[in-house]
Amino acid sequence: MPADPTRSLALLWRRAERATRRGNDLSVDRIVTAAVELADADGLAAVTMRSVAARLEVGTMSLYTHVPGKPELEVLMLDRACGEGTDEPDAPAWRARLERVAHRDWDRYHRHPWLLEVATRRPPFGPNVVAKYQQDLRAMDGTTLTPAERNAVLMTLASYVHGAARASVEAARTERESGITEREWWAAHRPYVEWAEDPSGTGDREADHWFAFEFGLARILDGLDAFVGRTG
In angstroms, rounded to a whole number, what is the distance separating the alpha carbons of residues 69 and 73? Predict the structure, then answer.
C-alpha cells in the first residue's frame, strides 16, 4: 500500500511530531535512523515496525505514536538518504557539476542499496528531496536550458544512474551470495565459448561496472554538450 501523501508530508516537515511521554526519548528521527541501519545491514525487507522497535528496545505500538506505518517510514528513509552529500562545493563548469550529481547518486545507491527497492515514482517532497532537487537544477546554471529542459536532463540522469547502479549492486549481491567472483564465472564458461575471456572488461566486477557507468555518463554528457552548443 502506498504512503498517504498528507500524513507523509506532515511527518517529513515534522508538523506531526507528537510530544513524547516523560522518560521516553523516542522520536521520528530515532526511528528513521534505526530503520536505515537495519536496511543497510539486511535490506528493505528486514525493516518492519516490529524489527525497528526491537532495535530501539521499545514496544512496537509506541512507534505508531510517531510514524503511522512502514509506507510512511520508507518515505522518511528516502528523504534522509537524499540529504547526504548535498553540502559539497560546486564545480565551476556545468558539465563537471552534472558529473558530481551522477556520482553522488551512484555513491548513495551503493551506500544504501535498499533505495533501489523504494518506489520513487511520486516521492513526497520532503526537505531533503527538495534541497537535492534544487541543488541538482543549479548544476545547469550558465546554460541556456529552459526549466523544462533542465528537469528533463535530471530525469535522464536519474534513470541512467538508477539502472547502472542496479546492475552493479545486483552483481555484487550475486557474487556475495554465490561465492563465485566475476573472474571465476567467466573462467568456468571459457571451455564452452571461445569469446569467454570476459568481453565485458577485466573480470574485476567493481572496476568493470564503474568503467561502464563512467563511459555511459560521458556519452550522455557529450550529447547534452552538443545540444547546449546548438541552443546558444
Answer: 6
